[in-house]
Amino acid sequence: MTAEKRRQLRRFEGSTVSLALADGSRLDDVSLVSARGTTLWIF
Asked: Taxonomically, which superkingdom (predicted)?
């Protein structure tokens, strides 16, 4: 992931988001806790 993409993700920290995973499954209505480094923390 590029530094620019990480900066864009950080704007959503503290927000409710939906994620599409590589295997095609989805995680809907999760809180993006942190998007620092190469790790996403969700709850």
From this structure: Bacteria
